[in-house]
Automatic annotation (TrEMBL):
Classification via PANTHER family: METALLOPHOSPHOESTERASE (PTHR42850), ZINC-DEPENDENT ENDOPOLYPHOSPHATASE (PTHR42850:SF4)
Record-annotated Serine/threonine specific protein phosphatases domain positions: 67-72
Superkingdom classification of source: Bacteria
GO MF annotations in UniProt: bis(5'-nucleosyl)-tetraphosphatase (symmetrical) activity; phosphatase activity
Gene Ontology CC: one annotated term: cytoplasm
SUPFAM superfamilies (alphabetical): Metallo-dependent phosphatases
Name of protein: Serine/threonine protein phosphatase
Length: 261
């Protein structure tokens, strides 16, 4: 039985599937998978990533766990008609997710290389919520963090999983959700706590002192965002060894599929 962490898949379904295959991930054998947010946006197959993970979680509720990232929050807000649609659609890759969810519907063209009108957004929202009635409740129910206890059998210490990080010096229960989803430098530059924290959100090449391979480490911090949002790749990290598999987006073959049944 192995435990794997991954984050920031960003719609790169092929690279994600290859990482699972290369890691021999098998929930039938008792393996566990924790996805630490940002399953969607920017990449071409957000729908495939999201619904495959929802399906896996339903089939293996004690072995597949999904956390919320800032991109899931932005999609949730957009589906509710809230938030800043231009920030989401134009600057954070939400347009790719809406096109993915619309499939072959002609309205998808409105979300390609331009800012769709309010009316086009309302119609797309209606179509998506009608086609996928469980999508909004599923997004809303994603937890912002997860605390894993120590495991004496594997020697794994207790660890906190959170998409972006925490604000140092503030108790976990009093953290601002905005920080849990968006924080960067105040967390990874200044956290000095005793509790291990595994996070995504900031691609490892952008973290200070990154050595160029595997997850980023500083003290009790482990960063695992492989940079798929910028077409770098997916990091699948085994816990607690931190051995990892990196699949570059460019190397993922379109005919590689892993479907866990």
């Amino acid at each position: 039985m192995a435990t794997y962490f991954v984050s920031d898949i960003h719609g790169q379904y092929q690279a994600f599937q290859r990482a699972l295959r290369d890691g021999s991930f098998s929930p039938q054998a008792g393996d566990r998978l924790y996805v630490i947010g940002d399953m969607i946006d920017r990449g071409p197959e957000s729908r495939e990533v999201l619904f495959e993970l929802f399906r896996l979680r339903q089939a293996y509720p004690n072995q597949v766990f999904l956390l919320k990232g800032n991109h899931e929050q932005m999609l949730e807000d957009w589906l509710k008609g809230q938030g800043n649609p231009e920030l989401y659609l134009r600057y954070n890759g939400g347009d790719a997710t809406i096109r993915s969810l619309l499939g072959h519907h002609p309205l998808r063209r409105a979300f390609l290389h331009s800012m769709p009108s309010i009316a086009e957004q309302e119609e797309a929202r209606r179509l998506i919520l009608t086609e996928y009635p469980n999508l909004l409740p599923s997004l809303s129910s994603l937890p912002l963090y997860m605390e894993l206890p120590a495991d004496p059998r594997s020697g794994a210490p207790a660890v906190l999983l959170v998409h972006a990080g925490i604000r140092p010096g503030i108790p976990l229960q009093k953290q601002n959700p905005e920080d849990l989803l968006w924080i960067r430098e105040p967390f990874y530059l200044y956290y000095e706590g005793d509790r291990p924290i595994v996070f995504g959100h900031t691609p490892v090449p952008r973290l200070p002192g990154y050595e160029g391979h595997g997850p980023w480490r500083r003290g009790k911090l482990v960063g695992i965002d492989g940079g798929a949002a910028y077409r770098r790749g997916i990091l699948l990290v085994e816990w607690p060894s931190l051995q990892s598999i990196f699949v570059p987006v460019r190397d993922a073959q379109p005919d590689v599929y892993v479907r866990i049944i």
